[in-house]
Structure formats: C-alpha cells, structure tokens
Design goal:
There is one protein chain. The N and C termini lie far apart (88 Å). The chain is mainly α and 75 residues long. The chain is built from two helices and no strands.
Length: 75
C-alpha cells in the first residue's frame, strides 16, 4: 500500500514539474512577443517621425565596411 502512495506522490511531483516547465516556457514566449511588439512600435514611431522626409531611421543608414573606412582615413 505505501509503495502505491509513493508512486502516486511521484506522479504528482512529475506533473507539477511539467506544469512549472510549461509555465516558464509560456512566460518566455510572452516576453519575447512583448519585446518584438515594443521594437515594432518604436520602429513605427521613428518612421512616422521621418515622414515626409526622405531620410530613413538612423540605424538603417548605410555605412562603410571596416576596410573601406580605413582606406578613407588613409587617403
């Protein structure tokens, strides 16, 4: 009888562990979604602020490759 109770207790513990792991996974997914939505919102805001100007947001500006920058400085 006590062996069966121990088995039931172990099954409950395993189920609780699985539930906790699933909650953590769900929380991580929700956090990732929130971060993506925040990035998208900031990007939309920056794009709105540049309109109707032709300049794209600063982080999307083309830049010289490191080798090209060194060549430009040498000249």
């Amino acid at each position: 009888m006590s062996h069966r109770l121990l088995s039931i207790a172990q099954e409950k513990a395993e189920i609780q562990t699985i539930n906790i792991m699933q909650q953590k996974k769900d929380t991580k997914a929700a956090d990732a979604q929130k971060k993506k939505e925040e990035r998208d919102r900031k990007l939309d805001e920056e794009i709105e602020q540049t309109f109707p100007a032709s300049d794209p947001p600063s982080y999307s500006q083309p830049h010289n490759e490191p080798d090209e920058k060194e060549k430009d400085e040498d000249e």
